[in-house]
From TrEMBL:
Record has Transport as a keyword: yes
Family classification: Belongs to the ABC transporter superfamily.
Coiled coil ranges: none
Highest rank taxon of the organism: Bacteria
Domain ABC transporter: residue ranges: 2-217
Entry protein name: Lipoprotein-releasing system ATP-binding protein
């Protein structure tokens, strides 16, 4: 599903990624762990096509993504990659249902089918009673589940999450982690998740340990 070869990235005179090689198969949940500053977020942003590497190659679904033009790349990202961040980044003036629908409406999908899928997803995530709640009317765990539904709306090839449970209490953290495994097991969803949670990482299909811009084996 994802093939990365010799990815490097430098900020100023700091080389943050020193040649990353990585292959992530379909239907697997890979975790990325490592100390703060190791380059985890930088790597995930590049794998998610949000940021360009200085060198290297990235294939997602056999598409050489950095060879796409700007517009094509934005469309590819919208369609194929679902993001979940540490902070939910839901739009405060829109309710849960509207937030989940946004990426599909950006992809010019029909309103009716989009709302149906959004409702199904929110139902699957245990939020069918929260459709018209605004983010400020939801708990932290509920907000992150809405963010997961938003990430899933376009049936992306891969979900990428950067410390998605970093702001949750232990109950909501465990629920969110269970949800990621459920997405893998029930939908064959591919996931790449940066985490500080060793217990969660140990349950994943592979732990990618980063240190100082490299993957440790
Ligand atoms: N946009 C940026 N400009 C300059 N330095 C950056 C930028 N983004 C990250 N860095 C630096 O790159 C290093 C790795 O950061 P990051 O990928 O966020 O690490 P991690 O997520 O593992 O904590 C850090 O030293 C950080 O300060
Ligand atoms: Mg980080």
């Amino acid at each position: 599903m994802i093939y990365a070869k010799n990815i490097t990235k430098t900020f100023g005179d700091l080389q943050v990624l020193k040649g990353i090689d990585l292959e992530i198969p379909t239907g697997k949940l890979y975790s990325i762990v490592g100390p703060s500053g190791a380059g985890k977020t930088t790597l995930l942003q590049i794998l998610g096509t949000l940021s360009n590497p200085d060198s290297g190659e990235l294939l997602i679904k056999d598409e050489s993504v950095f060879k796409l033009g700007e517009k094509q790349l934005a469309a590819f990202r919208n369609r194929e990659i679902g993001f979940v961040f540490q902070f939910h980044y839901l739009l405060p003036e829109f309710n849960a249902l509207e937030n989940v629908c946004l990426p599909a409406l950006i992809a010019k999908k029909g309103k009716k089918e989009t709302e149906e899928r959004a409702k199904e997803l929110l139902d699957f995530l245990g939020l069918s009673q929260r459709l018209t709640h605004k983010p400020s009317e939801l708990s932290g765990g509920e907000r992150q589940r809405v963010a997961v539904a938003r990430a899933l709306i376009n049936k992306p090839a891969v979900i990428m999450a950067d410390e998605p449970s970093g702001n949750l209490d232990s109950k909501n953290r465990d629920d969110l982690h269970d949800l990621f495994f459920k997405l893998r097991d029930e939908f064959n969803q591919t996931l790449v998740i940066v985490t500080h949670d060793e217990n969660f990482a140990r349950q994943s299909d592979r732990i990618i340990r980063m240190r100082d811009g490299r993957i440790e084996e």
